[in-house]
Amino acid sequence: MKEIKSILFLGIGGVSMHQLALSYKKLGYTVLGYDMKLNAYTEICERAGIPITTRFRSEFSEVDLCIKTGAIKDNKFVRVLMGKNIKIIDRAEALNNLCARFKCVIAVAGTHGKSTTASLIYEILRQAKFKVSCHIGADVFAPRFDITDDYLVVEACEYNKSFLSLNPDIAVVTNVEAEHMDSYKSMYNLRLSFSSFLRRASMRFAFDEECNKFLHRIKNVEFVDFTKLKLSPKIKGEYNLKNISLAIAVARKLKIDENTIIKAVNSFIGIARRDEFIGEFTNTKVFIDYAHHPTELDAFISTFAREFKDNLIVFQPHTYSRTKNFLKEFISVLSKVENLIIYKEYPAREKHASGLSAYELYREIKRTKPDVKYSASIKSTLKKLGNHDGVAFVGAGDIDKVGRKIVKIMRKKC
């Protein structure tokens, strides 16, 4: 087999892909990168000496290996590389290759909360002075990736069944609800995959709630309930208490002392785009949150409303298919919001034919909530803001950039 010296990353601008690219660069490989658009992650890669381009270059045909994001199934670049007999693997396989270098891999999966739970586990191990690295699909405090470490905490994404490429020592499941049904087609298939994920590990954890009951058929799973430890966490909401409880269960299994656990949990500041405060103007506090599934959305909105009685939610649907598949659930959750703006959708990898647009969601909500508003631009949103104690820009697309831009504009006006 040809020795691999150079690697091309297709879709290097993603949070996971850019971390992988940096890791392979540290291992001594020559790394090249492509993405449709440049962003903060591509800038990080370029500063590390990885050349990035937004168009196909001739040297791409000379690499020994291509690692592509799971969102790319087939495109003209893939076909060119295949024609050159260049080996192509998905992000998940590349991640598993790195996992094999660590003594203990802790993988966290679930429909909701996996980034936060993985980050909590990483933070507890870090404060306990473990030699620990992380690979998490969000920006975390003090990120580290060093193959000389003993432990690796990874976020295991179920999209396209990619988490089944991992072989963790410790597997954690937060919850299992309908999601990524374009990959699974049925709840039976989704549950089967999560069961397979847990069985791949020798130590298994899951939160003990109704959506995880099917996992009781698997032997040697530790089902976790709300922790009894007296805590004062900075992160809010019952959903975060579940994440905390799972992280504590893993930490105890690793024999970390209670004082270290409590200190780490209480000092944990959360991760980017999870109830993240981004600024204020005219006594209005502004937050961003990643919630894009109806269950996540309902949990965030309920918690936010308790903190800010007079609040505004600006929600951006993520993908046409999710909007269509969960239309009734989105209507149910969003119709209860007193002040609501539906922002133009973030299509990600999809075309409109895959489902419903944000405007179509807006029209459906308007049937029972006449005062709901729609916006397709920052300028339009500014006109519809009004005066509120708290504003949250919510969704998994580029709505965070919209929120940050609006804060910047409003501050200049003040």
CATH superfamily of the largest domain: Mur-like, catalytic domain
Largest beta sheet: strand ordering: 7-8-6-9-10-11
Number of structurally distinct domains: 3
Describe the global form.
globular
Structure classification:
alpha/beta
List the total number of helices.
15
Tell me the total number of β-strands. Answer: 17
Instruction: Specify the oligomeric state.
Output: single chain
CATH architecture type of the largest domain: 3-Layer(aba) Sandwich
Q: Which stretches of 5+ consecutive residues score pLDDT under 50?
A: none
| Biggest sheet features | 6 strands, parallel
Mean pLDDT: 93
Q: Looking at CATH, which topology of the largest domain would you report? A: UDP-N-acetylmuramoyl-L-alanine:D-glutamate ligase
> Could you tell me how far the N terminus lies from the C terminus, measured between alpha carbons in angstroms?
64 Å
Helix content: 25-40%
What is the C-level CATH assignment of the largest domain?
Answer: Alpha Beta
The amount of beta strand, in percent, is 15-25%
How is this structure best described in words?
The chain contains 15 helices and 17 strands. It has 414 residues and is an alpha/beta fold. The chain folds into three domains: 6-91, NAD(P)-binding Rossmann-like Domain (Rossmann fold, 3-Layer(aba) Sandwich); 100-267, UDP-N-acetylmuramoyl-L-alanine:D-glutamate ligase (3-Layer(aba) Sandwich), CATH 3.40.1190.10; 276-413, Protein-Tyrosine Phosphatase, Chain A (Alpha-Beta Complex). The strands form three sheets. The chain has a six-stranded parallel β-sheet, with helices on both faces. A six-stranded mixed β-sheet has the order 12-13-17-14-15-16, sandwiched between helices. A five-stranded parallel β-sheet has the order 3-2-1-4-5, with helices on both faces. Helix 5 (114-127) crosses helix 8 (238-253). The longest helix is centred in the middle third of the chain and has 16 residues, at 238-253. The model has no long low-confidence stretch (mean pLDDT 93).
